[in-house]
């Protein structure tokens, strides 16, 4: 019995330590299971007291009593957890900012009124496409997957959207996409103009420091003005952000803090961009959910913005492509149509999107062999490794090397001919200054290996020096 008493007090001590840990978790707003530590505490006392009776019947009594007590604590904690989950699901529901304000009148055109019913059931049917499982699409990252087929493809008149929000307050069962709420709050209405074959328009693209149009910043605004299907003017301005450009954005876009150091602020650039656009239709890829909210948040205003979103066009036409698309990103379409413009550069993406729009508009969907597949031979039999950050995305440098017959690998070895050395920005470098690739390359050089360390500009010189004489 003495052993069981000691065991009981050990369990009590462990339960107290556990309880303190769970309380700290709760204070830090992390998931905690305080009830479990309480149950362990009760178990320890039951075991100690039951053993102290020095009677089998006493021990049995305390065990039964303790079991019931522990069961009761467990049930109470479960009930509390279910209630908290229920409250959480209600509080996390997407609610329009004006939902709790008294609504006295909504102006709905007679034509639009036919589309909206006052019953929650009819509204739910009318906005079947409005409810989306995925409300965020990546725009700048190479890993972006913007081919979510359940996403919202519908551009809705503002009066109808207003009426739906009223019915949302009544039914509490519909979800208004965040970007539509945002545009509505700024009195901006999107009009889908993709049904007509336009010859006069502005193709535009943004590069930004992130994906959130309310908190991240624009660092490049680019556009092409087209009249009668011919480019007549272009707009290409870098923007000086309030905060530093994250290194991973520089890796993707090639835009550094040095490039934008002397650029104009977004207020000045947006004024010039607004004048440039005039009353032209805006064309872009995924602009409804990304680019338009970004420019609206930064001062661009039209009561009605007419747009053609090529992402939405591709979604509607995807079954017509003779070769199945891997996804619907602009990069994928560029490769599909055999284009060779720079990706993740504002003006380069505009040039790509201009061709893409014409192809989609004219239903010219034939597959073209990507240019990079027809490699030259200047770098034939040479192996390269890239390390660090460069003025352009690594993916483009890799494509450039491969288009001249070279090969790019992920790590330095005795077979490596060139290490292309960029700026080392990683937080964890092998010796605090150099990457593992750099250190390995230096080791091979000391051992009189064939590897050479060069900067990216020297790659151009290497290609030119190895071109055959004509």
Radius of gyration, whole Å: 31 Å
pLDDT averaged residue by residue: 77
Which percent range fits the helix content? 40-55%
- End-to-end Cα distance: 100 Å
Q: Describe the strand arrangement of the main beta sheet, using strand numbers.
A: 1-6-5-2-3-4
Note the total helix count.
17
State the shape: extended
Number of strands: 10
Give an account of the 3D structure.
The chain has 470 residues and is an alpha/beta fold. It is built from 17 helices and 10 strands. The strands form 2 sheets. Strands 1-6-5-2-3-4 form a 6-stranded mixed beta sheet, with helices on both faces. Helix 1 runs antiparallel to helix 2 and helix 2 (34-52) runs antiparallel to helix 3. The longest helix is centred in the first third of the chain and has 36 residues, at 56-91. It is extended and about 100 Å long. Residues 85-151 and 169-173 have low confidence and may be disordered.
């Amino acid at each position: 019995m003495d052993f069981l008493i000691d065991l009981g007090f050990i369990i009590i001590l462990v339960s107290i330590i556990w309880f303190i840990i769970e309380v700290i978790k709760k204070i830090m707003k992390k998931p905690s299971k305080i009830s479990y530590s309480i149950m362990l505490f009760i178990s320890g006392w039951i075991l100690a007291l039951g053993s102290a009776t020095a009677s089998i019947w006493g021990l049995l009594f305390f065990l039964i009593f303790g079991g019931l007590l522990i069961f009761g604590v467990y049930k109470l904690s479960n009930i509390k957890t279910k209630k908290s989950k229920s409250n959480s699901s209600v509080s996390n529901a997407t609610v329009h900012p004006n939902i709790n304000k008294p609504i006295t009148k909504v102006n709905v055109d007679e034509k639009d009124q036919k589309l909206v019913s006052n019953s929650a059931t009819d509204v739910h049917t009318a906005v079947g496409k409005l409810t989306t499982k995925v409300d965020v699409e990546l725009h700048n990252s190479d890993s972006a997957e913007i081919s979510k087929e359940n996403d919202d493809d519908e551009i809705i008149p503002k009066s109808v959207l207003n009426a739906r929000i009223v019915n949302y307050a009544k039914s509490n069962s519909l979800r208004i996409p965040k970007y539509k709420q945002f545009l509505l709050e700024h009195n901006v209405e999107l009009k889908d103009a993709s049904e007509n074959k336009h010859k006069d328009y502005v193709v535009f693209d943004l590069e930004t420091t992130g994906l959130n149009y309310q908190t991240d910043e624009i660092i490049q605004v680019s556009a092409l003005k087209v009249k009668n299907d011919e480019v007549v003017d272009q707009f290409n301005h870098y923007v000086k952000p309030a905060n530093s450009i994250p290194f991973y954005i520089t890796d993707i876009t090639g835009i550094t803090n040095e490039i934008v150091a002397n650029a104009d602020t977004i207020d000045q650039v947006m004024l010039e961009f607004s004048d440039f656009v005039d009353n032209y239709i805006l064309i872009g890829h995924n602009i409804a959910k990304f680019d338009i909210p970004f420019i609206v948040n930064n001062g661009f205003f039209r009561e009605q913005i007419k747009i053609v979103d090529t992402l939405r066009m591709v979604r509607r036409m995807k079954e017509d492509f003779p070769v199945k698309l891997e996804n619907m990103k602009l990069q994928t379409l560029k490769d599909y149509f055999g284009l060779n413009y720079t990706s993740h550069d504002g003006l380069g993406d505009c040039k790509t999107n201009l061709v893409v729009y014409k192809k989609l508009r004219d239903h010219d969907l034939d597959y073209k062999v990507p240019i990079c597949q027809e490699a030259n031979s200047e770098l034939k039999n040479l192996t390269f490794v890239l390390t660090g950050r460069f003025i352009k995305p690594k993916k483009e440098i890799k494509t450039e090397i491969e288009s001249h017959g070279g090969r790019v690998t992920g790590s330095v070895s005795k077979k490596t001919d060139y290490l292309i050395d960029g700026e080392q920005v990683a937080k964890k470098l092998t010796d605090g200054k150099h990457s593992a690739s750099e250190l390995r390359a230096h080791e091979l050089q000391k051992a009189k290996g064939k590897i050479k360390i060069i900067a990216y500009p020297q790659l151009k010189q290497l290609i030119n020096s190895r071109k055959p004489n004509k």
